[in-house]
Amino acid sequence: MNDRQIKVLNRLLDGFEGKLTTSKWAKLAKCSQDTAYRDILDLIDRGLMRKRAGGGRSTAYDLILE
Question: Which of 8, 28, 30, 37 is deepest in the core (most CB within 10 A)?
């Protein structure tokens, strides 16, 4: 994992309120939305996150804590 992913995952584990979107990830990690999306896709591939039901512009993601 990269530093951005570690930073945002720690923030999520500390109690993030609301839905996590690529734009919120980008603000937390201080990166572009494209980079945030790639970070999230990498974590989905690793089995650490999943996409919530729905989609489009309001796509949100959840941390898998199993």
Answer: 8
